[in-house]
Amino acid sequence: MSKSVKQIHFEKKIISRLIGKPLDVMEYIISDKEIQILQDYANIVSIKRLGYNDHGPVHMRKAALNAILMFDLLEQAGIKLNLEKEHIGKAEDSKIAILIAAMIHDIGMTVSRQGHEYMSVNLAIPIIDRILEQFYHNNITKKVIMKSLIIECIFGHMATQAIHSLEAGLVLIGDGCDMEQGRSRISTMLSERPRVGDIHRYSSTGIEKVNIIKGEKKPIQIRVDMSESVGFFQVEEVLFPKIKSSPVRKYIELYAGVKDEDLKKYL
Questions:
Q1: What is the pTM of this model?
Q2: Which end of the chain, C or N, has fewer beta carbons within 10 A?
Q3: Is the distance from CB of 41 to CB of 111 less than 8 angstroms?
Q4: How far apart (Å, rounded) are the C-alpha atoms in residues 178 and 59?
Q5: Backbone Cα Rg of the chain
Q6: Average pLDDT rounded to a whole number, residues 61-69
Q7: pLDDT value, residue 190
Q8: How many CB atoms lie under 10 A from the CB of residue 186?
C-alpha cells in the first residue's frame, strides 16, 4: 500500500525534530513494510468495518509527533524522564521508546476495538524485538528494559491500566491529543446510519486545532481551539481523563474553548 500525502507530511515533521539514534530508529520504522501494512489494515478495520475514526498510519504519526513535542518541552524545562532519572538510560533512549510505542500503539485495531491495547502488545512484541536488536544488539540490559517500557507505553495508551513512567504518560497524552476534526472526516462521510462511536466522531468535528506549546507556569500547555461547543465532549471524555491518569499531569496546563469565547481552564 502506498503512503498518503498526510503520512509523509507527519513523517517529515517528526524527522525534523530528531537527530542521532532516534532519527535512525524513526527512519527504520517508516521504511518497515510490516509496520505499514499493520497500520493500514488497522484503519480498514476501524473505519470501514466498524465505522469508527482514524486509528491508522496518520493517527499513529500524529500521536508520535504530539508525544515528541511534549518530550522536547519537558527537556527544555530540565525535566528528566524515568530512564535518565533512574540512571538506566539516556534521554535518547526514552525518545526512542516513545517513538516505537506511538508508531505501533494501535496495531491491535487489526484484531478488535475491544481490548485493542492488549492485542497491540501481542502484535508488537516481535516488532519491538526486531527494532531493539537492530539498534541495541550489544546491550542486553537496554534491550530488556526498553522492551518492558515500550510495552508499558502501548498497554497504557487507553488509560484503562495504571502506568508509572513519564515515557508512557507522554504516549498516552500524545494519543489523546489527536482529536482534530480531520481524524473523523472519512468515517463521518461513510456513515449511513447511527453507530457506536458516533459521538466521538461528531464531537471531534467541532475541534479545529490542538496546540502543544510552552506553558505559562508549567512546561507544557495544551490548548484546544473549537468551532462549536460539541468539542467539549472530546476534551472532557477523552483527553482530560487521559491527562488525569498520566504521570505527566503535573507538568501540563490544559485549556479549551470555542473561538471568540473565553477559554475554560482544566489544569
A1: 0.91
A2: N
A3: no
A4: 7
A5: 18
A6: 98
A7: 46
A8: 17
Please give the grid coordinates belonging to residue 57. Answer: 498510519
Percentage of residues in the chain having pLDDT higher than 70: 91
Average pLDDT over residues 52-66: 94
Q: What whole-number distance in Å separates Cα of residue 70 and Cα of residue 90?
A: 17
The 3-state secondary structure of the chain, one letter per residue: CCCCHHHHHHHHHHHCCCCHHHHHHHHHHHCCHHHHHHHHHHHHHHHHHCCCCCCCHHHHHHHHHHHHHHHHHHHHCCCCCHHHHCCCCCHHHHHHHHHHHHHHCCHHHHCCCCCHHHHHHHHHHHHHHHHHHHHHCCCHHHHHHHHHHHHHHHHCCCCCCCCCCHHHHHHHHHHHCCCCHHHHHHHHHHCCCCCCCHHHHHHHCCEEEEEEEECCCCCEEEEEEECCHHHHHHHHHHHHHHHHCCCCHHHEEEEEEECCCCCEECC
Helix axis angle, 57-76 to 166-176, nearest 10°: 130
Q: How far is CA 188 from CA 26, 51, 267, in A?
A: 31, 8, 31
Is pLDDT of 194 > 80?
no
Q: Which residues have a Cβ under 8 Å from the Cβ of 49 and sit 6 or more positions away? A: none
pLDDT at 178: 94
Among candidate residues 140, 144, 101, 145, the one with its CA nearest the CA of residue 121: 101
The answer on pLDDT for 236 being more than 50 is yes
What average pLDDT score do residues 34-57 get?
A: 93
Is 125's pLDDT higher than 60? Answer: yes
What is the per-residue burial (b if ≥16 Cβ within 10 Å, else e) of 25-53?
Answer: bbeebbebeebbebbbbbbebbbeebbbb
Q: How confident is the model at residue 205 (pLDDT cuts 50, 70, 90)?
A: confident
For the chain, the structural domain boundaries read: 5-265
